[in-house]
Amino acid sequence: MIVPSIDLQGGRTVQLVGGERLALEAGDPLPIAERFALAGELAVIDLDAAMGEGSNAALVERLLDAGFACRVGGGIRDRETALRWLDRGASKIILGTAARPELLASLPRERLIAALDARHGEVVVEGWRKGTGRGILERIAELRPHVGGFLVTFVEREGRLAGTDLALAEAVVRAAGSSCRVTIAGGVTTAEEIAALDRLGADAQVGMALYTGKLDLADAIAAPLRSDRPDGLFPTVVADERGLLLGLAWSSRDSLREAVRRRAGVYQSRARGLWVKGESSGATQELLRVELDCDRDALAFRVRQKGPGFCHLARFSCFGEAEGLARLEATLAARRASAPEGSYTAKLLADPALLAAKLREEADELARATSRAEVIWEAADLLYFAMVKLAASGVSLAEVERHLDRRALAVTRRG
Q: Helices 397-408 and 324-337 meet at what angle, rounded to 10?
């Protein structure tokens, strides 16, 4: 799989050659993150903090607050800084020279990535300027019990678009073992290299090839895919932003390129060719993420569905209407747009004081409920009024769920 890289220096997105020479500036990282996030996790590296020459922490926080799944690295040298980023919602943190067993032992192993920079197999430090005399495989053996993954950068290839070292990558994966996922950086340029690394059991962290257009993002995402079908198509499960099933479609490499280019729901119809969802009906889709299954022969599209729903019968899903909170959210959205006369929901939406009073009342009744039936009844009441509050504020349930997911990443617990 691909992990797009966003390197920050001087308040902007950059790409360096060999960690030293500025090759290009790409500006504000937010629109870059929006595009790259289709591939999943992003590697966000604060180069100034890593070199001890400043900080881009505000930019990193901006990306995390926007809800992007970020591996955060650069300048994390102590437990306080590590906890700051873990609590802030970093999916993982990347530690370089500070990756020492005594520090790692106090942090959640599954969210730790040790960054090892190697020039011709030798670990280098201090901004890649100083050799240590130690081999990369030796260092992996020392740190393997303490981290969940490794980021191994082949410094002599970094930013040069000359290809990566697959033989050394294979040795690194073997040394890391099955409990540590390896990410390879440095020189990865083609979809074929990404596919080869994936077969080895490693991810590819890619920067320069994506920024220069040498590597197409869609081709990078699709690189590990394999199809045993005569037509080469891939079954594509389509889900909304909360992960609720909308339907099943088919994708080709061509349709995936178009979907990524447009950031929209574009599929391959087996009868009509390329199919842009909603082009005629208005039920368009904003593509949020593309995921590959474990066998690399199927896709999942996570989308923000517009209009009445995914199904051509104007239903939420090809498998029926929405249920539970999804159904309530859709009903409240309809009431907000055009409520029937006498609608209680419309009355609540128009009267913030009444809604606030009902929220307090129902919260108290749920707190005092004792029997199972009472708890169900009062919880349903409170959820209804809470959902009305969300609708009145223009907040989606998916936003609340993403916020809960971020809270779950916090390591520091409340007193």
A: 140
Its pTM stands at 0.91
Q: Which amino acid, residue 277?
A: K
The domains located in the chain, with CATH, are: 2-222 (3.20.20.70), 234-305 (3.10.20.810), 324-408 (1.10.287.1080)
User: Helix and strand tally (H, E) in the chain?
Assistant: 16, 18
HSE on the CB side for 111, CA within 13 Å?
21
Each residue of 39-61: b (16+ CB within 10 Å) or e? bbbbbbbbbbbbeeeeebbebbe
Taking only the tens place, the pLDDT of each residue in 194-234 is 999 999 999 999 999 999 999 999 999 999 999 999 999 99
Q: Where are the beta strands (DSSP E) in 270-329?
A: 273-276, 285-292, 299-305
Distance CA 295, CA 293 (A): 6
Of 404, 398, 385, the C-alpha closest to 332 is 385
**Helix segments in 144-294, DSSP class H:** 166-176, 191-200, 208-211, 217-222, 253-262
Q: Are 278 and 299 in contact (CB under 8 A)?
A: no
Q: In degrees rounded to 5, what are phi and psi of residue 240?
A: -80, -175
> Quick one: which of 43, 48, 64 has its CA closest to 409?
64
Question: What strands lie across the sheet with 299-305, from one edge to the other?
Answer: 245-251, 234-240, 299-305, 285-292
